[in-house]
Write a structure and sequence with these properties.
The protein is of the alpha/beta class. It is about 30% helix and about 10% strand. α3 crosses α11. The longest helix is centred in the middle third of the chain and has 24 residues. The N and C termini lie far apart (about 65 Å).
Length: about 500
């Protein structure tokens, strides 16, 4: 008898489930009512993960009297001072600039004052000093490793197995107060992530929007196109669905069928909320193939950008945020009061490709890192302006995360793995136009080799933990102070156990 590879069958199924997206557990296993609910207002957080370790040393740049030390440490990675985009951070005696690829965010920072910079954030298990670092005391495991640091950022506790993410634990708390919705409080436009994995809540996945002829819902369907069948023939979709719902004696098979049925049901539900459907449940299209959206998103996001090499490239992050905008626009029809979104952009592991080695007199201003920040700037600027035009700026807060910062020193063509990094918080409730650091006197670290925060090669020793940073967003979403430690078990070890002050 031929051996059947059940592992591969299961892998294919899980892949389909991720695309179609799972549903939150409902009914008798729903958690007890959340203490602060039910919610009467709408709020959403959007986590933007910059995979690979963003070189934030070149995203936020010290100017004035501090620029010389920055430039000396960076060598050929230094952004020319005259090319930086000046920001009015309001920090007495100090001045700063953004990378020249970020003019949109510069305007939001300086004019709207709805963008804040949170400096020197990183994974910590305890408050850490140079002395404790050198003694290897209570350090995060596998420090400087991509996969581990990504996991630590998303789990919110580096000293325990990554069984869930802090966004997932937040979703567990607020799901039952979110409304009687068929769709999860957690929604990803970048595939499944540890960040959104809860003990009960399963995130729902939508696809990046690729144009007016595309949809963001992947439906779980028969492999045959039933529309081509005559009415006197069996409907393969009906047969497919009936196979999902039949009773099975094997528990694993029964779970398989239950998950598939939920994915199918949720996909059909979201499809019907977002699009005008025909009798077969397919989105109606006009003669040009444009999908009939119930909630059109205007203006559309910048779908492309001009890369440093002069070619036109797709801006996938903007496509992901456009899908997020569709789900936000449909919030009332989805029956939700809270949504936790996850989007991402990769490519930040710039060891040997941070800039283009060319005859350009300032080659650091071109190349991969510049192109990545250009995409981030275009996408975030569009998204914030869309929320503002919809009257939702105060209801949506976007923030960045990344594996780690990078070394101040150059390896010749790029930078190496670091630790602390600088991050953005963006939205109408952000008290922006300034920089938030460890305290009123520690706003931005000295960016110089052998400074008091250099653990080697200009790697910054973090002074703000992921716990304190993340707790700020969790509290804004409606969790009580007492519930924050359920999301961030190590939060009480740090100086700000109720989060930071950049959200109002």
């Amino acid at each position: 008898m031929k051996k059947i590879d059940l592992h591969l069958d299961r892998r294919a199924f899980v892949k389909a489930m991720s695309a179609a997206a799972a549903t939150p557990m409902m009914g008798g296993i729903m958690q007890a009512a959340y203490a602060a609910g039910p919610f009467t207002d709408y709020r959403a957080t959007v986590c933007l993960f910059l995979f690979g370790g963003n070189d934030s040393q070149n995203m936020v740049i010290p100017l004035g009297g501090e620029y010389a030390a920055y430039a000396a440490g960076r060598g050929n990675l230094a952004i020319p001072e005259a090319s930086t985009l000046s920001i009015s951070a309001g920090v007495s005696g100090r001045s700063f600039g953004l990378h020249p690829s970020m003019p949109g965010l510069q305007g939001i920072f300086n004019n709207d004052k709805k963008l804040a910079i949170i400096s020197n954030v990183g994974v910590l298990t305890n408050p850490t000093t140079i002395a404790s670092y050198n003694a290897k005391t209570n350090l995060p495991p596998q420090l400087f490793s991509h996969s581990d640091m990504q996991s630590h950022w998303q789990s919110g506790r580096a000293d325990a197995p990554p069984l869930s993410g802090w966004g997932g634990r937040l979703a567990d708390l607020i799901e039952s107060a979110n409304g009687n919705s068929q769709v999860s409080v957690s929604i990803s436009a970048a595939g499944q992530s540890l960040m959104q994995k809860g003990d009960r809540v399963v995130s729902y996945a939508v696809s990046p929007w690729t144009g007016p002829k595309s949809t963001i819902v992947k439906r779980l369907r028969s492999w045959r196109d039933w529309d081509n069948y005559a009415t006197d023939r069996p409907d393969p979709q009906a047969a497919f669905e009936s196979q999902l719902t039949i009773a099975r004696a094997n528990i694993l098979e029964d779970q398989w069928g239950g998950m598939a049925t939920k994915a199918l049901t949720t996909g059909n539900f979201v499809n019907g909320v977002l699009y005008i459907l025909d009798k077969d449940g397919n989105p109606i299209r006009d003669a040009a193939g444009v999908v009939s959206e119930i909630f059109p998103i205007t203006p559309p996001p910048p779908s492309t950008y001009v890369a440093s090499n002069g070619t036109t490239q797709n801006n996938r992050l903007a496509a992901e945020l456009r899908s997020v905008a569709s789900m936000i626009a449909a919030r009332d029809k989805l029956v939700v009061k809270r949504q936790i979104f996850f989007v991402s952009i990769g490519g930040f592991d710039n060891h040997g490709d941070q800039f283009k080695d060319s005859a350009n007199p300032t080659p650091i201003l071109s190349g991969l890192h510049s192109d990545l920040l250009k995409q981030v700037d275009q996408a975030l600027t569009w998204f914030y302006n869309w929320t503002k035009a919809q009257g939702l700026a105060n209801n949506v807060t976007t923030f960045t995360m990344s594996d780690f910062g990078r070394t101040l020193t150059s390896n010749g063509t790029g930078s190496d793995h670091g630790w602390g990094g600088h991050h953005f918080a963006l939205g109408g409730v952000v008290s922006g136009g300034t920089i938030y650091g460890a305290s009123a006197t520690q706003i931005f670290p000295d960016v110089a080799l052998k400074s008091g925060f250099d653990v080697g090669q200009g790697r910054l020793l973090p002074w703000t933990s992921v716990d304190e940073y993340g707790a700020t967003f969790a509290k804004w979403m409606g969790t009580s102070t007492g519930e924050l430690t359920g999301i961030f078990p190590n939060l009480g070890r740090f100086a700000r156990p109720t989060g930071m002050s950049f959200l109002v």
